[in-house]
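Kindly inspect this today.
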Amino acid sequence: MTRKIRPGRRSLLAAAAAVPAVAALAACSSDSTDAPSLGGSGASDGGAASGEYDAVIAGGPVAEDSAISGSAWATAIKEKGKLVRGGTTANQVFSIIDPATDKVTGFDAGITQLLARYILGEGGEEKVEYIDTTVETRETMVQNDTVDCVIATYSITAERLEKIDFAGPYYLSGTSIQVRTEDKDSITGPADLTGKKLVTQSNSTGIQAIEDNVTDPGDVETLADNESCVAALKQKRVDAYVLDQGVLLGNSKADPDVTVVGEPFTEDPYGIGLNKEHADALELVNAFLEAIESDGTWKKLYEATIGQVIEGDAPEPPTVGDLPA
């Protein structure tokens, strides 16, 4: 679908405070689109982090029995013996599957596995069923209980909060720009997107980010998924791909032909999508997030995943419960 987005207001938001600079992303590229996961056997970029990742997950907290029995949502998960997560297993930084081992690793994958351990107890991190979602299907799959939760670089917005609950936020990201690596010097920020052909995912925060921050863009194409947007960029049908930085970093790590440029220019808090009908789920998952932030698990997970591709110290985690109005 191609749409003409009205001229933006050029009201650039402050870059996400928790997102370090991404000026140097050389470490984000691998030689193969089939690169192993960060915690997978023989991982190339994240090989040194493999044992670190596994140790972080194995050392995560476990909820008190009273916390689980006091939550119908958590009790149902414990009774079926697994946590069903909606998301992706195709993002090299946040959630990627190693086809040789079926092991899923990354920041969002780690949050998922830690949540499963918190609910199911020792070894619970191994009891996760991963179901693919898209930006078009996430809310529906939460609402109809196809999944227990969605953990998928899922930005919390006021519009989405009308449909589902969000635990968190658990990470602050922001909208960024991805270009063909050959163009990384000519497009470095929103000011360079005037008159350019852009692509973003349908039903994503990228649409509003373009409206608010890009003056007189050319045609803006909206496509159903990340893979289609990357293909449009590489095939030179568009000049830049605008979306949440977390997704774009995964693309850059997987494919040296695309590069993230500049700093994030919006603030996008990630949350865990939950069914509004399970109010007890929100309380329990927020308690889980507070636990992994306070005991240092969150920081260790960041260092073993996102910290492998973004330079600098781990940021302070966001305040749980601090949601957009």
Q: What stands out?
A: The domain at 47-172+270-308 is CATH 3.40.190.10 (D-Maltodextrin-Binding Protein; domain 2).
